[in-house]
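Hi W.,

Here's what went into the run:
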Amino acid sequence: MASGTGRRRIGWGLVDLLVVGYALVPALWILSLSLKSNETMTDGRFLPHDPTLQHYAAILGDGAFLRPLFNSIGIALISTFFAVVIGGFAAYAIARLEFVGRRTLVGAALLIAMFPQIALVSPLFKIEIALGLFDTWPGLILPYVTFALPLAIYILTAFFREIPRGLEKAAYMDGATPMQAFRHVIAPLAMPGIVTTAILVFIFCWNDFLFAISLTSTTASRTVPAALAFFTGSSQFENPTGSIAAAAVIITIPIVIFVLLFQRRIVAGITSGAVKG
Amino acid sequence: MAKISLQNVSKRYADGTLVVKDFNLDIADGEFVVLVGPSGCGKSTLLNMLAGLEPVTDGTIAIDEDVVNDVPARQRNIAMVFQSYALYPHMSVRENMAFPLELAGLSAAEIRERVERVADMLELTPHLDRRPAGLSGGQRQRVAMGRAIVRRPRAFLMDEPLSNLDARLRVQMRRQIASIQRRIGTTTIYVTHDQTEAMTLGDRVVVMRRGVVQQVGPPQSLYDAPANLFVAGFMGSPSMNFLPGRAPGEPRDVMLGIRPEHLRSAGDSEARAGSRDEHDLDVVVDAVESLGSDTYAYFPMPGADRPFIARLDPSSPVRQGDTVRLRYAARHVHVFDRATGARLRHAVPPKLQEHNSRDDQRATEQRAE
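Here's what came out:
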């Protein structure tokens, strides 16, 4: 019996290790590349022979990376904020109100999520040129919010539906306006959903390459994924592999921090105790 | 504190179902009114309309002469205790009770003082800083009560507040609710499907069925003189025994009813009941339930849809299969119109077994003359 469960645990451990290893190899490879000097870049070793931080020093001392990093952070944060706020209100209405066109709205949101983004790049480019939004922060924030909203609405609707209706009724009886009920009762309880949505939207904006490359032209608004494509080595004859690897590692860090910071708040069961149970 | 007046109140849902039909009731200041009925009878809908959580289709609701049909719930100054308690899970007990006061814009000192006084009254003081999830069912129920009481509202609405508690706690809280209501004297409307709660709590009881009021009155009068078959069957546990039959001098088909406690064991005394008013019934007992305080004897009654129940003294040695002589008084037999269900007030109650025995029938006819 005991050996049986022991063997099972070893078996599962091996499977886990395999999956984690499979997922992490490319990330570790990038990390390894970023630590190799240009001379040892192609030596075929997985572990850097002579680890160096020279690529990090190079890109961090260079506006070609720092400015896009700033753009990335700013654009992703602003987009996330708007997507969560607008998505929150929309999801709350969908979860709670019976209004004409509710199904249509949900359907339209789904349609937007399914639309191939590449099909929209040319019209968006034309529109943004005409509106003067091309190569500006709003020029990226707008499509990001648009494409993140369906996702935000879907996740948040599910979370709002979980919250017992009795709580809003209680808040109204306690003298709250609908807005106060939302702010003091519903939003705090939907916090795990809001945080989950925020992380997913942030990651979507952070990782986007297509819009970033087609709707920007200078470092005024270019985000890191697009900027990486324009990386050159220290000299024109140098391969920028090391710099790209270092930049890739750096832009992974905020995501990791973001998730680590908020995963504690993504706790299920915060609503337990609201009603009988 | 307030008096509440409902005039011709109706509620029709969008799909056309009429859930409350032409409801009229005047509730006096400080009165405790219980709305009782089976699920789906419209009592909760009515409470929600009073609260302002559901719009009124027709009629007027007035609190202290002011028509409140279009006043939103938050401005009616009425507190509600929900069946689910609806406590805010992310707030402590103290914050839960303080929430309505904060919304009302009271000072922090005033809020603190009021919350602590009510917590003391409900024995919640040691739990003030705990979250609802860490409380027992009874404690949660008391927090829900406390959140209603701290506001000093014009009226309390209670929607089956005890139905999630176990039997013992329910009895205890029932007493507590009654004593709190008496002490603070706030007009209270209490919804329940439990006729025991209706009997024990209300100054007046409103029995509802399918959106229509069946009878309004003090609990004892509903019990003693139910206005129709539905009220007769609903109030009282175990419920009244019914037997289709005929009543002397009554052209209509009638339904006879007698409560289980009015069927007493005749014991080993004289062979036949002597007095004009009392009758005997010889029955074969089908099943016996002993509750300690009472013994319920079930026996088939020819003509009745369901077996009769007699509530006997626990000391009676009745056992399954025994033939027992039961005695009842004619004045305890209720007579209803079988077609409409309405109580026939002046009908002469017949014997229950008249159609079984020719002798009895002759006796009845004599009496009718």
